[in-house]
Amino acid sequence: MTAMTMPMEYRQASADFERFILDARDLAGLQTTNQAYTMAQAVLQTFRRRLDTEDAILFADILPPVIRAIFVAEWDLEEPRLPFSGRIAMTREVQALRPDHNISPDSAIADVAGALRRNIDEAKLDRVLARLPAGAADFWRA
What we know:
Layout: H1 8-11, H2 13-28, H3 33-48, H4 53-60, H5 65-72, H6 87-96, H7 108-119, H8 122-131, H9 136-139
Helix pairs in contact: 2-3, 2-7, 3-6
């Protein structure tokens, strides 16, 4: 009996996340990865609020392990689903997470989208976004 090897995405999850969060920090012009983490978490939660559970799982499935964990963490399944609205309104929602510690710029959604696109298979992302509700693909436009 041979043992299944650990998938590479789990073996290098921390290094992959570090690359993503550094990209997010740099694209947003933030000073620290702590600031970038709050921004990325807020962007992921803002997107998640606009998906039903099935669509959210479809999206989560293409995310690297640590980003996937952030996307599903503290998920209130009873929270009402929100519509995709204008970028400005969704950006204000991003900036409202932990407002005393959140300095996400007005470009936060595009910055996190750019970092995500640099760190995952873009073709796979675009295929999944095409299956999600109207507004999903636009949300992840860098």
